[in-house]
Amino acid sequence: MTLSDFFAAHPKAALAFSGGVDSAFLLWAARTYGCDVRAYYVHSAFQPAFELKDAERLAEELKAPMTVLEADILSVPPAAANGPDRCYHCKTALFSLLRTAAARDGFSLLLDGTNASDDAEDRPGMRALRELAVRSPLRECGITKAEVRARSREAGLFTWNKSAYACLATRIPTGTPITAEALSTVEGAENALMALGFSDFRVRLFHGAARLQFTPAQWREAAARKDELSSALEPYFDTVLLDFETRTGG
């Protein structure tokens, strides 16, 4: 099945839109193949400000209608507690909110941007999507992350080479309760590193310190600029650690 086939069979849908590579391409595809689609961006403390800006920019470029929903995710106890199943509870809360809003607007079909490269068996949040009957056209059509990027580039989407960006909650060690202050600190620190020209990295909390994770391609530059990194992060952390062993991941 192709995306053209999918949208021919499902001509009206709501899309959970994050502003990331996958959902951006899916929004483009839905518009291209004639689907009556509305994008829904759920904003919470777990999402950095730049993601909303990217989502708004792309929706405007594609002339796609977009609704921004506000979610107080820290008021969901199992999500704020940050246990091993945090993602399940977070997805359940956010997608339930999204589904309610979409239904109110006349959309019964809800889509998300999970692609064929995503390991559905190893992602607790996927269970929530299955329970809420969320469809994933990219995955169903066998479209991988690499294909999404290549086809996004062909389509002229600015998101084609955007770095993967897991939510801010992933920067807090599992088992450590998540607070608005911790999320704000991490977001500020990551914005500071972006301003220095770094991309595809993580600033993780580690016993009160910042543990910086870069892709191997950026390790050498990070080490060479360690004093600059420490200075940029001084407003946020007293101690900055470079992690040369772990990939950025989630």
Describe the structure.
- The chain has 250 residues and is α/β, with parallel strands linked by helices.
- The chain is 45% helix and 14% strand.
- It has eleven helices and seven strands.
- The strands form two sheets. The protein has a four-stranded parallel β-sheet, sandwiched between helices.
- Helix 2 packs across helix 8 and helix 5 runs parallel beside helix 6.
- It is globular and about 55 Å long.
- The relative contact order is 0.13.
The gist of it:
The protein is α/β, with parallel strands linked by helices. Helices cover 45% and strands 14% of the residues.
List the helices and strands and how they pair.
Elements: H1 3-9, E1 12-16, H2 21-32, E2 36-43, H3 49-61, E3 66-70, H4 77-81, H5 86-104, E4 110-111, H6 124-131, H7 137-140, H8 145-155, H9 180-195, E5 201-206, E6 209-214, H10 216-224, H11 226-233, E7 240-243
Parallel strand pairs: 1-2, 1-4, 2-3, 6-7
Antiparallel strand pairs: 5-6
Strand arrangement within the widest β-sheet reads 3-2-1-4
Helices, by number, come to 11
Average pLDDT = 92
Q: What percentage of amino acids are in beta strands? A: 5-15%
> Class by helix and strand content?
alpha/beta
Rg of Cα set = 19 Å
